[in-house]
Design brief:
It is a single chain. A 7-stranded antiparallel sheet has the order 3-4-5-6-9-10-11. The longest helix is centred in the N-terminal third of the chain and has 32 residues. The N and C termini lie far apart (73 Å). About 6% of the residues have low confidence. It is built from 7 helices and 11 strands. Strand 9 and strand 10 form a beta hairpin. It is α+β, with helices and mostly antiparallel strands. It is globular.
Length: 209
């Protein structure tokens, strides 16, 4: 028969095991919550972290694009490290992501026209000429999208080894467009000297509204 001491030791061991298990379960729960954290803008949730080209990116900022009082889309900017500087966000060759979630149906023509108009405002004539063929290729890809219904997820990813990749509703559209300078030009649509929307520029740079 087991002695009282042996029984007490067994109970103590079980109690320690249960406490250790509880601590482990709490740690797992906290980790799961942290991994599922998201930022909500305009009723749209954006993950606080994503992976692009094998590198973890953080949500630098997010905001709401409006036009003539209409809500057009929610947009988030993902960078390797948070910054409130547009020049820092634009510089270099790291992976990056712009994620757009439409809040109304948009046509490929609307997307393409807005793209070209914003690029013309934020690029010099020499820059536009240097990027001309790539801009035209991207414009044609946007036109081919046809329609982007409400809640369509559009991603503009920059992959250092390949260039700019357009994904619409989880499907890649067109070919990757090479060159960091092309992606930087796209970012200037929202972060340039004449951004699509001033308060949106501030929001993407994580500045107080």
């Amino acid at each position: 028969m087991r002695t009282v001491a042996a029984r007490n030791a067994a109970r103590t061991g079980i109690s320690k095991l249960l406490r250790a298990s509880s601590v482990l379960l709490v740690a797992i729960a906290i980790l799961l919550v942290q991994n599922s954290q998201a930022t909500e803008v305009g009723g749209v949730k954006l993950d606080d972290k994503v992976s692009v080209a094998g590198q973890e990116l953080v949500l630098n900022g997010a905001g709401l694009r409006t036009r003539l009082m209409f809500k057009v889309y929610v947009i988030g900017l993902y960078l390797p490290v948070k910054t409130d500087s547009a020049s820092t966000a634009l510089a270099g060759n790291p992976p990056r992501r712009v994620q757009i979630v439409t809040l109304r149906e948009l046509s490929g023509e609307q997307l393409a026209d807005s793209l070209v108009e914003s690029l013309q405002k934020n690029l010099s004539k020499p820059e536009l000429e240097a990027l001309g063929s790539r801009i035209e290729s991207f414009r044609k890809t946007m036109l081919a999208v046809g329609k982007a219904p409400e809640k369509t997820v559009i991603r503009l990813d920059y992959l250092p080894e390949r260039g700019t990749r357009l994904t619409v509703a989880e499907t890649q559209r067109g070919e990757d467009i090479p060159g960091a300078e092309f992606y930087q030009a796209l970012l200037r649509i929202w972060l340039g000297a004449q951004p699509a929307q001033e308060d949106l520029r501030a929001a993407l740079l994580g500045k107080p509204q």
